[in-house]
Amino acid sequence: MTIKDWSASSSARWIRRGSPKWLTALVAGAVVVLIAVLLSPLFLESRHSGPTPGISNLKRLALATLLYTEDSEGCLPQDMSSGPAVYPAVAPYAKSPRILDTGDPASPNWLGNGSIAGHREAEFAETAAVTIVYFSSAPRNRTDSSSGHRLVSFMDGHIHAVHEPTFQQSIATGWKLFPGANP
Questions:
Q1: Fewer CB within a 10 Å sphere, N or C end of the chain?
Q2: Cα Rg of the chain, angstroms
């Protein structure tokens, strides 16, 4: 088929005339729907916005405390009774006071394990993974005071959600959550 023969064919006439308006509208509509489907998650609020900011902030508070400890010759801050109490000491290691936000109106402050305040980190070397440093002041997702869980940070920097009965047991055992406990 030569170029002259092709230009005389019916498909060439259709290309020269353009596509039918209904086809153009259909394609444009499909493109708009596809874009809307792909972009809609970006504009919708997340359904799981509950503890996420709190977990992140607790992790940042725990890491700021670890950095403070490294720069203070291994000594933990003197006042670790709560997030607001320890914040002046760890402020240089935190980006903002927003690390004090628990993300839960029922638990407005992080509380701290005051029994370890001022001690050397080396004293907890053997038990760093089980020694509680900070925790939420009230259980989350609770129907009564014995259910729900608390967000807890440990001396080695990891964060865990601990069921309330297990948390209460850890207080009785010297602020340590031993392996085998039901977190």
A1: N
A2: 29
